[in-house]
Prior knowledge:
The structure is a homotetramer.
Chain A: E1 2-8, H1 24-39, H2 44-50, E2 53-64, E3 73-83, E4 88-97, E5 103-118, E6 124-125, H3 129-136
Amino acid sequence: MTFELPIQVFWEDTDAGGIVYYANYLCFFERARTNWLRSLGISQRQLKESIGGMFVVSKCAIQYLHPARIEDELIVSATLQAASAAQLTIAQQARRRGANGAASELLCQSTVHLAWVNAVTLRPARIPGYLIEKMRS
Amino acid sequence: MTFELPIQVFWEDTDAGGIVYYANYLCFFERARTNWLRSLGISQRQLKESIGGMFVVSKCAIQYLHPARIEDELIVSATLQAASAAQLTIAQQARRRGANGAASELLCQSTVHLAWVNAVTLRPARIPGYLIEKMRS
Amino acid sequence: MTFELPIQVFWEDTDAGGIVYYANYLCFFERARTNWLRSLGISQRQLKESIGGMFVVSKCAIQYLHPARIEDELIVSATLQAASAAQLTIAQQARRRGANGAASELLCQSTVHLAWVNAVTLRPARIPGYLIEKMRS
Amino acid sequence: MTFELPIQVFWEDTDAGGIVYYANYLCFFERARTNWLRSLGISQRQLKESIGGMFVVSKCAIQYLHPARIEDELIVSATLQAASAAQLTIAQQARRRGANGAASELLCQSTVHLAWVNAVTLRPARIPGYLIEKMRS
């Protein structure tokens, strides 16, 4: 079950090397995670306001294979690999969008680990069980 | 009374045109305002936590005169022009740092208007009088 | 003739005040201008590579009326107001997307002036006539 | 031999969670690498203009241990771990600046791999030998 989000590369995403700045792939990956959660009916804003918790990235590993340039269109994906009360493991890819609209050449990939914290104290806590159930279903 | 902050241009600040991306001057100007306030003993983090209010930009006008490039060193300034309970008016400039270390060629300038809001409701409120007094002294 | 682009607010767009950071509206406005140009068949990447020129913002004025928050959906617009060989004047707005999908509450608006420069020397030049014709048609 | 750069957290670096947005540590790490290179007399802008090459990140792994908040002062470090013609390996840390001005609590750490590409074709190439010599000396 892979969630895919089309993302267009704008001037803001590039640097003077003419390519997408390396930190910005983490923004792209986060957008895909956010919309994957929304597709499951999970609003991070509501979680923060109602139960006072939020996801934070605890760890990630990123490989940069090919550069993206301005006006490129990407397909950015998020795939849940593992979910426990302690952490989520999500595989993510940014691929160039091919002529047929589907994802083609792999540009960047990452494995991202998410933990859960109290939104006020920022202390680690267990990921609420009903969120994990929604993700697994 | 002009506050000046040296700012170095990094890859993250530039775009594929090879120059500093236009939105990023607003970041530079905000850094100068933050450190001008800190030089007066005003911590925005403490204000938010203690009295539950914060400054927001209500209006600004920006002129871009010359581009900055990677590894340029800038002097970014903030000068209070007017202060009332309703708003602050701050003149800001980004100049290239000359060989002697002082600000030289003017690259970008802005007039920024700040208002005050309740940090929770985001409703406009009067700027606390003791902040204005600190700024005027 | 107004071009409209839907833009979703992600974590990256917000700051610790809980609202969209003021510089990021300039990114949103630039995305709308880019896609307005693309809707006219104008690719800024191709212009830079083929005729060695690019648009730069020479001036803008921005009003911030209401804050946007994470997961808000915006409609960001670009409307050409004037076009000469020296500069383009573009009116831009960011509105919250209403329940019916159309633009509602006005959050931020700007008038943006664009000039044209040689992409290597960064020297000002006349905007190519055929671009202006495409924009006017 | 560790290079250290003090970095202050500004509004732009934070998100609505009240903490530094996870992608922004990659900006901080890049700033430290840039100034480490400059401390060795290596200007990336000059390299791009004179020999037409540039460093790109090929891989990195990041651990997020504790969050940073607005107005925090960080010490961000870069330590060369290995250098070959194919890649540089650099260990990086972001620590909170303690009361004595020295780096204290570890917030985020990363191992970053850099490769070298032709700045026009973006094709991988060998890292120039004299750069590696400067780094090793």
